[in-house]
């Protein structure tokens, strides 16, 4: 791993130019469709924080590209009094995703737990697709995968690759069942209306997910571009490859997406650390922002 070239603990802060360089080198496609799951602190110190990373992603994709961020709202959506306000309810999926939600050109899909924000020419098409389910074949999330959008894991493991749930639903795994939730939504004019969404939570007794197993298999098969963006280990893969690989794994092992003996598959490349906030994939743990 090329940690030395980027300096150690005292390396200089990342700016937009350095981020664009690393994202381009990784293979983020100009004009492409890209969904990003991220951890800001994994990158090391970034001048300007999440807004700079967002700018860098948009610049790398260019004006013909579409950027998608998860703006999920669980666990707060479990509160029976939860009011989903698409314009104001923050994303709970990290600072970069929330910066995307607040971008003046962002469009947000409507879902109590699994909304997404999109910026770019395909944004409107994607966020308005489908009905009340986050996972159906016509849902916004499926649109991304089925248009062969790419997924970027920026400093986080495959455990955060939400698109694997699409395969779980499509393959009709027995441990997830649709559940309809009814809450309230605030419309742009301030009025409150009843609002329903369908999710597919795990059934009682679910042992926990191991999406790292699928991801590591894809890496071993050469289907993932792995590199460094700043201090973050970054992984880039295509929706079509993910769908095929998930089907192959499930056909071989019906427990392929589940933890065995409570364990998650370790990732071969870089360091995967757990903090009180979540999991982080980094080249050098001492360079994570906030660990000084
Ligand atoms: C939970 C998760 C977001 C936590 O990651 P994180 O890096 O600690 O948090 P964020 O991305 O929100 O970044 C904020 C942190 O970056 C750090 N930070 C602040 N300014 C910074 C800067 N300029 N440069 C770099 N890091 C900075 C701080 O530690 C900050 O935490 P604080 O607000 O508590 O001080 C991450 O582990 C994760 O799971 N991301 C994926 C989420 C997802 O898409 N899930 C899909 C469904 S499972």
Short descriptors:
292 residues, 26% helix, globular, binds coenzyme A, 21% strand, alpha/beta, 7-stranded mixed β-sheet, 3-stranded mixed β-sheet, single chain
Short description:
26% of the residues lie in helices and 21% in strands. It is an alpha/beta fold. It has one domain (25-285).
Radius of gyration: 18 Å
- What small ligands are held by the chains? coenzyme A
Report the sheet-strand fraction.
Answer: 15-25%
| Widest beta sheet: strand line-up | 4-5-2-1-6-10-9
Mean pLDDT: 94
Shape: globular
Structural class estimated from helices and strands: alpha/beta
How many domains comprise the coordinates? 1
Compute the separation of the termini in Å.
Answer: 22 Å
Order of helices and strands: HEHEEHEEHHEHEEHEEHEE
How would a textbook summarize the main sheet?
7 strands, mixed
Share of residues in helices: 25-40%
Number of strand elements: 12
Count of helix runs: 8
Explained architecture:
The chain has helices spanning 16-26, 49-61, 95-102, 123-127, 140-146, 163-170, 211-220, 239-252, and strands spanning 33-38, 66-70, 83-84, 107-108, 116-119, 150-154, 179-186, 192-199, 225-229, 232-238, 271-274, 279-282. The chain is α/β, with parallel strands linked by helices. It has a seven-stranded mixed beta sheet, sandwiched between helices. Strands 3-7-8 form a three-stranded mixed beta sheet, with no helix packed on it. A two-stranded antiparallel ribbon has the order 11-12. Helices cover 26% and strands 21% of the residues. α2 links the parallel β1 (33-38) and β2 (66-70). The protein has one domain. The chain starts with 15 loop residues before the first helix and ends in a 10-residue tail after the last strand. The chain is globular, with a radius of gyration of 18 Å. Coenzyme A binds at residues 37-43, 45-46, 49, 70, 72, 93-96, 156, 160, 162, 277-280, 289-290.
């Amino acid at each position: 791993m090329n940690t030395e070239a980027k300096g150690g603990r005292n390396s200089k802060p990342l700016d937009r130019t350095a981020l664009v360089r690393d994202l381009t080198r990784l293979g983020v496609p100009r004009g492409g469709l890209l969904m990003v799951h991220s951890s800001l602190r994994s990158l090391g110190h970034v001048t300007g924080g999440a807004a700079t990373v967002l700018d860098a992603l948009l610049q790398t994709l260019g004006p013909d590209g579409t950027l998608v961020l998860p703006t999920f709202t669980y666990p707060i959506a479990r509160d029976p009094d939860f009011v989903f306000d698409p314009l104001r309810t923050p994303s709970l999926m990290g600072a970069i995703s929330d910066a995307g939600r607040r971008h003046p050109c962002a469009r947000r899909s409507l879902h109590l737990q699994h909304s997404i924000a999109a910026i770019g020419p395909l944004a409107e098409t994607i966020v308005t697709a489908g009905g009340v389910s986050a996972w159906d074949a016509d849902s916004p999330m499926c649109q991304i995968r089925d248009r062969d959008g790419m997924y970027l894991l920026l400093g986080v493991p495959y455990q955060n690759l939400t698109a694997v749930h699409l395969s779980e639903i499509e393959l009709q795994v027995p441990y997830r069942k649709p559940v309809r939730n009814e809450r309230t939504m605030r419309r742009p004019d301030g009025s409150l209306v009843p609002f329903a969404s369908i999710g597919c939570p795990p059934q009682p007794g679910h042992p926990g997910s191991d999406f790292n197993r699928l991801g590591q298999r894809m890496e071993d098969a050469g289907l993932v571009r792995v590199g460094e963006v700043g201090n973050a280990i970054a992984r880039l893969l295509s929706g079509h490859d993910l769908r095929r690989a998930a089907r192959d794994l499930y056909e071989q092992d019906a427990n392929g997406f589940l933890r065995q003996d409570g364990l998650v598959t370790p990732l071969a490349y870089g360091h995967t650390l757990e903090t009180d906030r979540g999991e982080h994939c980094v080249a050098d743990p001492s360079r994570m922002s906030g660990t000084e």
